[in-house]
Amino acid sequence: MNINRILLELIEYYRKSRGSGHTTLMKQGISNYEQKKFVLLNKQEDGKTLSIPRDEVVTLNSLERLRGNSLPLAIDNGALMVLLIKTHQYIMKLEQERSQSKAQYLMINKKKEELEKEISYMKSNPFKTLFKTLWQR
Questions:
Q1: What single DSSP character describes residue 64?
Q2: With contact defined as beta carbons under 8 Å apart, do 86 and 66 qualify?
Q3: The pairing of beta strand 38-41 with beta strand 73-75
Q4: Cα separation of 42 and 75, whole Å?
Q5: What is the pTM of this model?
Q6: C-alpha span between 58 and 55 (Å, rounded)
Q7: Cα 98 vs. chain centroid, distance in angstroms?
Q8: CA-CA distance, 53 to 65, in Å (whole number)?
Q9: Residue 40 and residue 62: Cα distance in Å, rounded?
Q10: Edge-to-edge strand list for the sheet holding 38-41
Q11: pLDDT tens digits for 35-86?
């Protein structure tokens, strides 16, 4: 299964299973873990809502807080969904650009072949080419 299919499967799963207890599971897990940790959330306000200490909250916009640390990281499903969706969108954009580039490459290659045929004809028939050029003027 390619990565895009995996992303779509996970996105669809999370969409269909909203309200099934993902956040509760994560909260119970981190509340039972008594050592220092980080919790990745979509936004800072989610930390207040989930009663997560501010110094443990890392958001998608504050990932630099992870640098130099080796603490465990729990990922909330809201942040995970954002990551999955944005990654899928980015892959789709790259695939579209690749497709457009391939089409442009094929068009340029076809034009190049046409020009090479014309040059080859001109080299093999210089008088016909000269006559044709003068006739067109």
A1: G
A2: no
A3: parallel
A4: 9
A5: 0.70
A6: 8
A7: 13
A8: 15
A9: 9
A10: 57-59, 38-41, 73-75
A11: 999 999 999 988 888 889 999 999 999 999 999 999 999 999 999 999 999 9
